[in-house]
Amino acid sequence: MADVITSEYRLATETGLKSFVQTVLEKAGVTAEDAGIVAEVLVAADLRGVESHGVARLESYYVSRLRNGQMVPKPDVQTVRETATSLLVDAGNGLGHPTAKRTMERLLDKAGQSGAAFGAVRSSNHFGIAGYYAMLALDHDMIGIASTNSTRFGAPTFGRDILLGTNPLAFAIPAQNEPAFVLDFATTTVPKGKLEVYARKEKQLNPGWAIDANGHETLDPQVALHGALLPLGGFGVDNGGHKGYGLGLLVDILCGVLSGGAFGDELPLPTDGPLPGKISHFFAAFKIDGFRDPAAFKRDMDVELRAFKDSAKAPGQERIYVAGEIEYEKTLYNREHGVPVHVKVWNGLEKLAGELGVPFDFEQR
Amino acid sequence: MADVITSEYRLATETGLKSFVQTVLEKAGVTAEDAGIVAEVLVAADLRGVESHGVARLESYYVSRLRNGQMVPKPDVQTVRETATSLLVDAGNGLGHPTAKRTMERLLDKAGQSGAAFGAVRSSNHFGIAGYYAMLALDHDMIGIASTNSTRFGAPTFGRDILLGTNPLAFAIPAQNEPAFVLDFATTTVPKGKLEVYARKEKQLNPGWAIDANGHETLDPQVALHGALLPLGGFGVDNGGHKGYGLGLLVDILCGVLSGGAFGDELPLPTDGPLPGKISHFFAAFKIDGFRDPAAFKRDMDVELRAFKDSAKAPGQERIYVAGEIEYEKTLYNREHGVPVHVKVWNGLEKLAGELGVPFDFEQR
């Protein structure tokens, strides 16, 4: 865990950083309650070590788009359709996080009554880490599912047009003494940010990551940045690229088509700049006690997770992880030691604080 | 499509082949109704071109296990727990297909009333293709999900113990004029049968498919057959192997742990021979009209699927497929021309017919 705490990082207090994010968003016209939810979700990402989805995006993804009118600070959020087991919400082109969290909470209420509920949000924007919303189910002895479509970076198997986002899928399942199983993954092999990191370091890509603009696989990060990401499983079908492509398209259907939102080639390309309100989300929750006593289930979850963690390691490996475990341990560590924020991000936040006249005082001392 | 119809294959009539499978299973003590369901599911696999899950397994997976007492021909199937939105069934160590199909049908009834339903089956056996059960949702304007755990062949990321089955996940979503979206995939990169084919042909494996018994990646199929399959995404984490591992474990949790059935290292290894009643299944269904008018949804599904199919092809590629399309076209073709059955399988069925005194007369003429 300690590897992230280098001189490239400075440490923030969790409450101070959340408070800062909230204040900044309030300055941009967002209500205190909505701003608090965004702060909670962004800092949760940084605590979990998912820097790419944390406060690093505060200015570029959220504040700038609120200030230049591309996103609505106080959106008119509407329930479009509702049954005892389903919910469709229009986010009114507001921040994704508040409507996503409230929709998942309403689904948990519904599932608490009915046993199961599915929901979607349309006309939304980037909502942070999908896992946050799936994990809301954990305290209710439910299994949670969350997903979102996204700006397009990826190509389908046998194709070269950019049609698919990184379209993450997240599942959260509680255990007893073990950390919960939290699987939260992009359906492309790697995120676009990885190509940018490799370009900066002038490192070759792995096979299976990206194609050039003509649809040939490429190991050159500069070329790949003008091409497209490959789906999980890589190029062609030999290593299962069609499976990752299928999962990416599944996410776009469950989010975009099912919600009546934007989908397929209506979603923004990176070159489009932000297209307001084009993003959709999908959620589900169901009660474990529809199947078994939740306490017995969670005891068995411990047995299941331990069977994997205690199994024989491959040469050179010290641990076998289960999904969500690394992020859980990072959260514990970062809560104790401070939330690591990359100095470039830190400096950006300081600049933003100056522009908005917001106090900048969340350093862990 | 025509590539499968070579001299290595003989052609059966669909009705004749189904009738043969049903008669064979009845001879093994299975009721006519159950035998008819198994015949339907197995021949559906052959029609879809999924030979590995079709009549090729009739003797080895089903009839032999019924005849030697490892599986129960007329099982005592019990509803263990039931709510308006959930269902847990114990298959009584019978054939997987009949209880799986009836459970999914009961979930479709529940979802028809409640909007959404989740279910699981425990104490079951191999149920054929997962996609068959997910597709039962299609005619109800619902989205269907089906999954099963399975005999273990695969290792977790950073591990070398064999802990994971090929654990398939299937999703079926209706469209209007386009074939339905049917994603049905193993969460390992390749099935074990692929290693066997490569061993026979003395061909090198791809990187990302398998490890040896010590946990090193191997390209030697003979060595791999004594090792383990890798999860979708391959060896280690660089190409997303942890994602495929997470999906495989997710399936084992949803099937084995949620049902109170066998899970983790309780599942059979190939070297164990069949362990009766250790397999569990998971299903879900929900109504599209909880979100949108189903007709409008299906029109948009056509737009979505066409956006992918009509997009620019990579060099050397003539078509971009969406999930389930190849299998749909094979079904149409095979319904017209006859169901292709490999001569080795054909001869095995003829031998079985002789042993059981069952007429062998389903050749397409």
Give the beta-strand count of chain A: 13
The CATH superfamily of chain A is identified as: Malate/L-lactate/L-sulpholactate dehydrogenase, NADPH binding domain
CA-based gyration radius of chain A: 20 Å
Major protein interface? A-B, 87 and 87 residues
Structural class of chain A: alpha+beta
The separation of the N and C termini of chain A measures: 20 Å
Mean pLDDT of chain A: 96
- Shape descriptor of chain A reads globular
* Cross-sheet strand order for the largest sheet of chain A: 2-3-4-12-5-8-9
Question: Stretches of chain A where pLDDT falls below 50 for ≥5 residues?
Answer: none
CATH architectural group of chain A: 2-Layer Sandwich
Oligomer: homodimer
Number of helices of chain A: 11
Helix proportion range of chain A: 25-40%
CATH topology of chain A: Ribosomal Protein S8, Chain: A, domain 1
Tally of separate domains of chain A: 1
Account of the protein in words:
The structure is a homodimer of 365-residue chains. Chain A is an alpha+beta fold and 365 residues long. Helices cover 38% and strands 17% of the residues of chain A. A 7-stranded mixed beta sheet of chain A has the order 2-3-4-12-5-8-9, sandwiched between helices. Chain A has a two-stranded antiparallel ribbon with strand order 1-13. Chain A has a two-stranded antiparallel ribbon with strand order 6-7. In chain A, α1 crosses α2 and α2 crosses α4. The mean pLDDT of chain A is 96. The interface between A and B is large, with 87 and 87 residues.
